[in-house]
């Protein structure tokens, strides 16, 4: 079995979440990913908790399946070493602010002259051009200015950040998609190109139907808690031991719910609920009827009865339940154990991309800082141990 991307070499100069997540996706799919970090300091996220034996598991989760080297890009020898690596690379990814790599003499215009096949991926808060391009960008900034926070939260409550770094993750995924599109385009054009991803763009694109509603009505969508502005019933409902999700995405499912589950077949012809838009408009009134049913049952009973009639329903898992679920954690392998040289046995998130013939494989833990200097620089640049010691003493690696 071979990796789907095993013919690609990636230089990963990214830090924190979005870029490293992209690099991890490529590494899981078989690419040779070389993580390039600052000497002594490394990726900013090496300082992020939690730590085990002094190593960040935050960093380790996002940088698996990568070789790790250190390189001082501000040193002239370090810059030349990167140029020499670029000659042998297919892809380079970085998430510095626009202009930083240019000021180092390592921007796309320079690197594309060194290797016209190079695909140069950038990921920033606001992209490489436009009036906001020079602004710093973090996940919460993307969620704020991309509209996600305005839609998230309880009705009448304050704007709320998503519980994970959704802007960063969306940006990392879009960078991976863009890079692979550029790999195919290279076969058509004969040369590489720059891929420009903005975190804010990624969040804006993810809001799809919210903007469709705005353009149609001219009204800014309000926060609606766990209900959905386009479909009802599609919400969380109170059970005797917690909340449960029930989702009726079409008329047939609504009719099954009314006739065979909640015991109110008359609601099908009720003028408040005859169409999906009317049910959305009158969602709170409809929810009362549904919670008469769910409120007498446990979450497990609601899910069992609903699924028994073909109506989508689910418990609301916490992370402890997810990691022990036989489908998600077991058969879908969404949590993978690896042996880290310092942390020891640890678990990283699995890859959601399932390829039948060339599946993603997670077997190499994240590198310690500069762990693979000798291996990578020896193989790709022909540097021996003596020269590497000299470079370390000079602050190059």
Structure description:
- The protein has 397 residues and is α/β, with parallel strands linked by helices.
- It has two domains: 9-205 and 327-393, Crotonobetainyl-coa:carnitine coa-transferase, domain 1 (Rossmann fold, 3-Layer(aba) Sandwich); 234-318, formyl-coa transferase, domain 3 (2-Layer Sandwich), CATH 3.30.1540.
- It is 40% helix and 15% strand.
- It is built from 18 helices and 13 strands.
- It has a six-stranded parallel sheet, with helices on both faces. A three-stranded antiparallel sheet has the order 9-10-11, covered by helices on one side. A two-stranded antiparallel sheet has the order 3-4.
- Helix 6 crosses helix 9.
- The longest helix has 24 residues, at 166-189.
- The radius of gyration is 25 Å and the shape is elongated.
- The mean pLDDT is 97.
